[in-house]
């Protein structure tokens, strides 16, 4: 692992502009650029990438044969080359340039390369009257993938005017640009950036379940693998599979050269089965994860519970990947003699871990809870762990949540005031209701629920509890709390009469099963309790649509992923894939609840492969406008997106992650997840 000084030096180098220098001698017209772990070679209408054993190329099909490359923005630095012991081959004072240009690559269209040592970018400048339909990009090799292009013009007043843009694939396999309306009397700039798409996969089933990032821009993927040859990288905590299914953690550097983006992976598990179901990542790169295990030899560290309690237990994990084999800081079973699983996790600024899940055990561990006995056939639970304590003292709070029928806990989030929200589903008419709640009566068929707790109050910790939904089955899957203390939750509904607000993105039930998104403001204490529901909408088509992940940025845009079986799921004009592929597709939805419903979503797309199963389980984004999606597929998901091929066959699943450029009108900031 790198020392702190080494990492600082790498960051400084990463931010430096890329340097283009002439290659060879005698005015060959070729250039080279070197970055972190990669090299690009440039010819007049081609760029070649070399990264370790990976080779890939980008070609401009049909470009003018008379195009000449020339460096611009000459830098103060020079390069000296000592090749072998033949002094005649040594070269000095090789000029360095900040940009590389190919004028008139196509009639009226210029190409400009630039970037940093971590990321190569290029602009295509379309002069007034030129035809951008002439541009044809051809990708060869496994490494290159493109963000959705950003296109813009500069108005007379000097303002940047965005132009809708996306890729389309031509019959010959090359790619072109589909553009919205723009002023053809002004210059148009099309600005793609090379980014990543990759599979995390061995020779058996591999499924990503969650995604997060740290303050350095590293991307973290958590999931489950059945592969004994899952690709390992870095100093893994556990370098070999423990059993049939193990949890895995992977760390990716999206700005590294293709082939070098996976910087850390590890198994986590015993000789039985582990399934990682949720994960969060702190800004300094600490991973917190939960799931379920039936292994009696799960690795533990400072554990509250060091042995398997029953059929299956929840597990809780705190791992620091940067510390390699010494990175396991906390790992514990949580469970009794029956079946238990952890489904949601978050962490507060003091490092306390909050785990929500479901238990069937009367002996699930309880500490200072408001409900200390199993009420139904299955209850939700909330457990709070303080890893700074020792062993059995680490469990500082734990409570059942449920009524006398079946209850399940799914999502957990921290509010700005330090209280905790838990959401899930219940079939219990006597589910614990508290406070001046939105709805205190159970309807039928299974309701969603939301409860607010203050663990420091022990037996009095339940502050608020409410039912949510309509007359069909409803279950909340994910929750977050915004800066105003409002509760945002998503889940699935089979209710044709779900209460929706006047500004709903979709006011009518699509059919079979729909996604729902609701915003609850418990601070509203009017005579009409229903005023607390400040936003509610359906989203989906005529078949099944189910969400898996929910994030929010500081502008109030919501990001949701999941899966759909609906050919008529609403999609936006800027979709990556606008049509359903007749199997199980993933989806991505981005919208702002404050916008008028008539404007539709900011972004909505299918994620399909022309075959197989696709489920998008996690979503994240960075401050540069890149949206990252993780999940798993049994098909060739990236085929339609110009990304890497999936070599695995036989219907086995591969974990995936890819990044794409968010729509231009979104401003990005950190997520609200309590870190």
Structure description:
- It is a single chain.
- Among the domains are: 17-195, no CATH class; 549-675, no CATH class.
- The strands form eleven sheets. It has a seven-stranded antiparallel beta sheet, with no helix packed on it. Strands 1-2-3-4-5-10 form a six-stranded antiparallel beta sheet, with no helix packed on it. A four-stranded antiparallel beta sheet has the order 18-45-44-43, with no helix packed on it.
- It is mostly beta strands and 675 residues long.
- The two termini are 25 Å apart.
Keywords summarizing the entry:
675 residues, mainly beta, seven-stranded antiparallel sheet, 2% helix, disordered N terminus
Uncertain parts: 1-16, 667-675
SS element count, helices: 1
Helix vs. strand class: mainly beta
How much β-strand is present in the residues? 35-45%
Question: Which strand order spans the largest sheet, edge to edge or round the barrel?
Answer: 6-7-8-9-16-12-13
**Rg of Cα set:** 27 Å
Say how many strands there are. Answer: 45
Major sheet size, sense and barrel closure: 7 strands, antiparallel
Termini separation comes to: 25 Å
> How would you sum up the global shape?
globular
* Average pLDDT taken over every residue: 87
Approximate helicity band = under 10%
